[in-house]
Write a structure and sequence with these properties.
By secondary structure, the protein is an alpha+beta fold. It has three domains: 115 residues, Orthogonal Bundle (Butyryl-Coa Dehydrogenase, subunit A, domain 1); 107 residues, Beta Barrel (Butyryl-CoA Dehydrogenase, subunit A, domain 2); 147 residues, Up-down Bundle (Butyryl-CoA Dehydrogenase, subunit A, domain 3). It contains eleven helices and ten strands. The strands form three sheets. It has a four-stranded mixed β-sheet, with helices on one face. A four-stranded antiparallel β-sheet has the order 2-3-7-6, with helices on one face. Strands 9-10 form a two-stranded antiparallel sheet. A hairpin with a 2-residue loop joins strand 2 and strand 3. Helix 8 packs antiparallel against helix 9.
């Protein structure tokens, strides 16, 4: 299995060099990679690879999915990593683990091929991390539900064909109770895409506002149980946050490697920057920081595969790895000096792209809250 995994890794690297690297700078300028990339990823077998063969996947181990994330993140193409994570490691597994057979057969094979792009619509204007305060609602009308509301910061919002939408279906109960998940097709009347939001980083990925105006959704589109959507969200957090942790470590490894090459080649005061004690000590600190987080994340991957990864542990991994990623990106930019602030150097992109990691998937502050509850209990 290890040999097979490494062969797969080499294939991913070749794909990145041939299909991503030559075009990425233009995608950054365009502030969106083309919709056609999804079909290309699907044709190359790089989407939702660990889904069962019965639903179009390859039935491989979780590690194969993570190899894809690692190599894209290590190559500093984070604006593709995020959308792929949402599609392959969140939406498709929401459906696999909570959908009925009709839903699985309808969506999963097309998600593997890249024909159907998935998105998750949770966050709303004014709610942020407080998913219990969502106002999007769905009222029963015969055999259907009428969906109204708006969402923001939605990854894949411009490209998506399918959106997993969190909505209140029971307005008489407080908090998370009475929340239901709906599978909403983007061609349904009343569904509208807002603008592609302007971000400080991840320019090549689309992040959008979504609007639902009297969208008639059949009851058969409910994902999981009625009024029990929050439970589905909580059950799927382990994979989501672990995926973010994996990409955080890989991104840090990639930018450190690039920086090591830079300090060897760049000279100051008549000698390579790598010869200065400050550079040596800083690189030693960064390499140690990365290795510690790599070890923890690898432990979490093993726990996830065996079904033993708990929310507190993965929250620790997400907190530690995302904070580390930002520290490494910042330190590596500093070692580049003024050139680190120039967009032509990859470290500048790594710096701005890393910042969102401490926010989405649960902010660092939310991670600390979860961890502290476990400690104090």
């Amino acid at each position: 299995m290890s040999e097979e995994l490494e062969l797969f890794r080499e294939n991913v690297k070749r794909f990145i060099n041939a299909e991503i690297k030559p075009h990425y700078e233009q995608w950054e300028k365009d502030e969106m990679f083309p919709r056609s990339l999804w079909r290309t990823l699907g044709d190359q077998g790089l989407l939702s690879v660990d889904l069962p063969e019965a639903y179009g996947g390859f039935g491989v181990d979780f590690d194969f999915s993570m190899v894809i994330q690692e190599e894209f993140a290590k190559a500093n193409f984070f604006a593709v990593v995020g959308p792929m994570t949402v599609h392959s490691d969140i939406v498709s597994h929401y459906i696999l683990n909570n959908g009925n057979e009709e839903q699985k057969n309808k969506y999963l094979p097309r998600m593997v091929s890249g024909e159907c792009v998935g998105a998750v619509a949770m966050t709303e204007p004014g709610t942020g991390s407080d998913l219990q305060a969502i106002r999007t609602h769905a009222k029963k009308d015969g055999d259907d539900y009428i969906l109204n509301g708006s969402k923001t910061f939605i990854t894949n919002g411009q490209h998506c064909d399918l959106v997993v939408v969190a909505a209140k279906t029971n307005m008489d109960v407080a908090g998370a109770k009475g929340t239901t998940l709906f599978l909403v097709d983007a061609d349904m009347p009343g569904f509208k895409r807002g603008r592609n939001l302007e971000k400080i980083g991840l320019h090549a990925s689309d992040t959008s506002e979504l609007f639902f105006e009297d969208v008639r959704v059949p009851a058969t589109a409910i994902l999981g149980e009625l009024d029990n959507g929050f439970k589905v969200l909580m059950n799927e957090l382990q994979r989501e946050r672990l995926s973010l942790s994996v990409s955080a470590v890989a991104s840090a490894e990639g930018v450190l490697s690039q920086t090591i090459e830079y300090v060897k080649e760049r000279s100051a005061f008549g000698r390579p920057i790598a010869d200065f004690q400050n550079t040596k000590f800083k690189l030693a600190e960064l390499a140690t920081d990365i290795r510690l987080n790599r070890s923890f994340v690898e432990e979490c991957k093993r726990l996830f595969i065996t079904g033993d990864l708990d929310v507190e542990t993965v929250s620790m991994a997400k907190l530690s790895s995302s904070e580390m990623q930002c520290r490494v990106a910042d330190a590596c930019l500093q070692l580049h000096g003024g050139y680190g602030y120039m967009r032509e150097y990859g470290v500048a992109r790594a710096f701005v792209d890393s910042r969102i990691q401490r926010i989405y998937g649960g902010t660092s502050e939310i991670m600390k809250e979860i961890i502290s509850r476990s400690i104090l209990s």
